[in-house]
TrEMBL record:
Species classification: Archaea, Methanobacteriati, Methanobacteriota, Stenosarchaea group, Halobacteria
Keywords (A to Z) from UniProt: Membrane, Transmembrane, Transmembrane helix
Biased composition (Polar residues): 1-18
Name of the protein: Uncharacterized protein
Stretch list, region Disordered: 1-28
Annotated InterPro entries: DUF8028 (IPR058341)
Transmembrane regions: 39-57, 64-83
UniProt keyword Membrane, yes or no: yes
Species this chain originates from: Natronobacterium gregoryi (strain ATCC 43098 / DSM 3393 / CCM 3738 / CIP 104747 / IAM 13177 / JCM 8860 / NBRC 102187 / NCIMB 2189 / SP2)
Amino acid sequence: MSNHSPLSNESIGPSGTETEQEHDRSSQYLHSVKGPAQFLSFWVAIALPFLHVPLLAQGLGDSSVILTFLVLLAINVVALYLGHGYNQD
């Protein structure tokens, strides 16, 4: 006669080393994505204002032009924030 437990081993949480390995893996992934994301954000923040010039030259009389300008401005602010630390030692 065997004594079966009502709980299987799967219901017990992962051991500390498994949790640490998952954390290390996610930390390593975030670190590998951070550099390219900062690079892209930095250059988008530099290039995006050149799209503002034709919109401003055309004039902001139309509501769709105003909306486009504001969306581009918001994207530029986000890109500046994300890319501000690029290539700093």
